[in-house]
């Protein structure tokens, strides 16, 4: 599946062909899901938001301008939904709450036990959930920037279009977000 | 450790790919001489690597299916349109066939069916409609696809479409006798000719 084929599918969806939307979902689901996951830090919720984003994109497909990049438009819908969700949610870190990045694992499981899993697997899983936890503790505005910058390696200009903020602000936030993460992750 | 913010800024610019050749040179020469900044830079690069490697995030397997099931129902018109778009040839053939068979059937009916007004004491023998002796028809008489033989009396006009008047004498018709089989024959010929042309048949 390439960009050209996607552009064709988008045209078909605009003309009312619902089945062509399946190609679009298949193509973008990984990225959209990953961005949402980085922002909300929970697999179940991320999937919920990603799904909502695709459904909204379908309903509002007529307002998409074909001269612009589809991913920018789609990511904006997804990040707006995720930002809304994060604002509504109070920061809560319960010991039995699901920990970000480790699906199905809670903090009890995070506490080192007798180590039945292979050593490196445990470590990578722990590292991943630790990284996600650190990201989740950043303020919302840095989280969305980090999600967009490090999942799809989007350009500064694209990020500025998605979040509707000036490029200068994007730069500042990436720098500060990266600096904050450096301090949190230097011991990993 | 307290190198100026300018250097840190350059590191970020470098990581963003947003740096000029000169600035990159400045950064490199500073890093060579400053260990603290080297560590800082290494930590930043590692942070980026840590955050970026975790991209094997995938939604559940039935993600797409769930979305497709939740989409609002497509309009019926679109379904037909899509079908037409996917099978243009089949659609064209189907429409053509429908129209052709429709016209053929109507032509067929016209050719075969003898039609005459009912309830007027008319007698039919083979394809000839007979007005028997002693019968008086006060209205107009229209016969399609058949001949007419008037032994009785017709007070109105007689119209014969695609048929002949077999009456011995014209005296017992008060109105006009019109024979339109010539025009019909011409029409019929045209339709038949067109059909043969289209289907490429000999006869």
TrEMBL record, chain A:
Keywords associated with the record: DNA-binding, Sigma factor, Transcription, Transcription regulation
Domain RNA polymerase sigma factor 70 region 4 type: from-to ranges: 130-181
CDD domains given in the database record: Sigma70_r4 (cd06171)
SUPFAM superfamilies listed in its UniProt record: Sigma2 domain of RNA polymerase sigma factors (SSF88946), Sigma3 and sigma4 domains of RNA polymerase sigma factors (SSF88659)
Gene3D superfamilies associated with the record: 1.10.1740.10, Winged helix-like DNA-binding domain superfamily/Winged helix DNA-binding domain
Domain annotation RNA polymerase sigma-70 region: ranges: 25-90
Family, similarity comment: Belongs to the sigma-70 factor family. ECF subfamily.
Protein name as it appears in the record: RNA polymerase sigma factor
Taxonomic path: Bacteria, Bacillati, Bacillota, Bacilli, Bacillales
The encoding gene: sigW
From TrEMBL, chain B:
Record keyword Transmembrane helix present: yes
Classification via InterPro entries: Anti_sigma_zinc_sf (IPR041916), Znf_put (IPR027383)
Pfam family, one: zf-HC2
UniProt keyword Transmembrane helix present: yes
Regions crossing the membrane: 86-108
Keywords carried by this UniProt record: Membrane, Transmembrane, Transmembrane helix
Putative zinc-finger domain residues: 3-38
Domain of life from the UniProt record: Bacteria
Family statement: Belongs to the zinc-associated anti-sigma factor (ZAS) superfamily. Anti-sigma-W factor family.
Official protein name in the record: Anti-sigma-W factor RsiW
Organism: Gracilibacillus oryzae
